Amino acid sequence: MDWQATSDSWAGGEPGQEPGLPAGFGRGGPWSTVAPSAALATALECAAGPAGLYEDADTDALVGIARQWAALESWAAAGKLATLRAMTCEDADGTPRLRRHPDLPDGWNDSLTYEISGALAMGPVSAGNLASLAWTLGTRLAGIGRLLADGTLTLPKARLIVQSFEPLADDEAARAEALILDELAGKTYPQVDRLAWRAALAVAPDVAERRRAAGERRARVTVFREDYGTVALSGRDLPAADALTGHANVLARAREYQASGLFDGQSASTLDALAYVDLLNGVSVQERIAYTRSATAERADGPSDDGHGNDDDTGPGNGDGDRPGPGDGGQDEPDGPGEPDDPRTPAPPLAEVTVPLTTLQHRAERAGDNRLLGPLDPVLARDLAAAAARSPKSRWEVTIVDENGYATGHGIARPRHSGQEPPPPTGPPGRALPARVNITITEAFLHQLAAQVTQVAQPRSGAPPGAWQLTPSKPGTWTLTLPGGRRLAVRLDVVPTYDCDHRYAVSSYLPGDRLRRLIQIRDHECTWPPCSRAARESDFEHAIPYDKGGVTDACNAGARSRRCHQVKQMPGWTVTQPRPGWHAWRTPTGRTYVQEPWRYIA
Fold it and tell me: Secondary structure of 219-271 in the HEC alphabet?
């Protein structure tokens, strides 16, 4: 199932006499947590009634029914795969039915592959892939197969994990599976993707590098027809730094169009597409704006027919988008590096890159992260950080995390002196990546660096002297040294996780810049568990509303996407913080979903 209730779940008994359907599927009811089975299918059918209208079911029961149908769907998929898996074994007389060796997923027999293809009305290649998936979930990743069978995972999520672990050796796949088995319940597809890749990188960080190198040799541009009859133009298997820089250029161009005021009514995604095509076709900003202004003037006297309605699913404020919503509040501390000199010019978009300090210093091979690409293997994380160091527009931050990965400290790095900064090192064309780089470090390693303040740092092989060094300076301030010798000062603030001493509280409705920034670092994403909108692009929201006595403080604040914010304000919805950083959402049906602080890798 996609989402599991927490403390309100109730362990039901074995199916028996009808315990009052459909009410038995409500929260705490005897059918609400029954494992998927034929008996559960019968009960669901009975609950639907003769016409399938669920006339006797209230909203609470319908939520439980939907959850159990989802579990049954996964159970049925597991049953189909088990059948295919049985076909991969040999007959009793030793005649191979699908492969020559019962212990290997090789040697698919075309005859049986086509049997599957005809029976399931799918192409032979897809049939072979499905048979391979069945074998993998029964042997190599049997734990994932069990989660599919009991309804914890849907088939697409199970397939995603299999694909993520495909480059791993069998023993590595087993270790990666063990890392995530207890974390998968209640996770969305993108969250499962992130967990799987983090686990794969944890057990074999070099596998991703080899796979990426092979993929980049297949770089290409493709043109294909979309479902609506429109055409897609896509660059595939591109180098990460170049692709992120290109994406940032598209967003920067789109922001210029938006700032002109001539594109009102067009969604953010529409402007992104327009900017993409203009950049490919060599159309300048001035040419596009002049053309649009002229076309607008020609229509001024005619009837209004905009034709570009701002679809709520793609425009600003959507919880699943990648654009700031109307409640974003802008960049924190706008005097930092990377901000435009002309206040009328939109701030250039910055790629978000998180990378552990130990990875940058080659002390460990720990994964980084990027919001567009997901988990980054160590080599790619170092490559993107180096590309960011070559851009004078990049911004730098440091986040301190505890043993659980929760943020406990954070600071923005600024030039140590107000004078001219040394120019960034040169590199290949297009390899300078304007980015906001968040360097993570554990509390234990930070204390170790503080204890070594009297020691002289020795240059590491392959890096300029002093590159990626974090050293203490005056009390409360550290010095971050980037490649090329640039030195930045970092003042660390306490992130209000676990405890709230009210040091950042304000009496006004709007928070101060520091409080807003630290809440964004602590939460990282919208605090409604299925929502993945970045905290920087979400509202700063009071759990207890300000007009009902709620304080503007870390113990009453959280990141909410604009849409999630609006849902939370509807009747029957509440959000509380059992402790700072933990957000408990209670729905009108009484179900509770808890989101913990973001777990960083350091």
Answer: CEEEEEECCCCCEEEEEECCCHHHHHHHHHHHHHHHHHHHHCCCCCCCCHHHH
Q: What is the largest CA-CA distance in the chain?
A: 85
Residue 439 is given by DSSP the state E
Eight-class DSSP state of 329: -
Rounded Cα distance, 434 and 394, in Å: 5
Annotated domain spans of the chain: 23-201, 239-289, 351-417+430-455+462-494, 513-595
Query: What is d(CA 13, CA 110) in angstroms, rounded to the nearest whole number?
Result: 45
Most confident of 187-201, 310-324, 412-426: 187-201
CA distance linking residue 278 with residue 528, whole number of Å: 37
Identity (one letter) of the amino acid at 138?
G
Residues in the chain: 602
Q: In Å, what is the CA distance from 487 to each residue of 340, 363, 421?
A: 21, 21, 9
ω into residue 22 within 30 of 0, thus cis? yes
Q: Which DSSP category does 552 fall into?
A: B
Q: Which residue has the tokens 């993570």?
A: 440
Q: Which residues neighbour 219 within 8 Å (Cβ) at sequence distance 6 or greater?
A: 235, 236, 237, 238, 239
The answer to whether 400 touches 409, Cβ cutoff 8 Å, is yes
Could you tell me the two tokens for 363? 């002390």
Q: Which two tokens mark 278? A: 């203009």
In whole angstroms, give the CA distance from residue 56 to residue 62: 10
Write the pLDDT tens digit of every residue in 558-588: 999 999 999 999 999 999 999 999 999 999 9
Dump pLDDT digits (tens) for 463-505.
445 789 999 988 779 999 999 889 999 999 999 999 888 999 9
Q: How far is CA 251 from the centre of its chain?
A: 19
What's the distance, CA 502 to chain centroid? 30
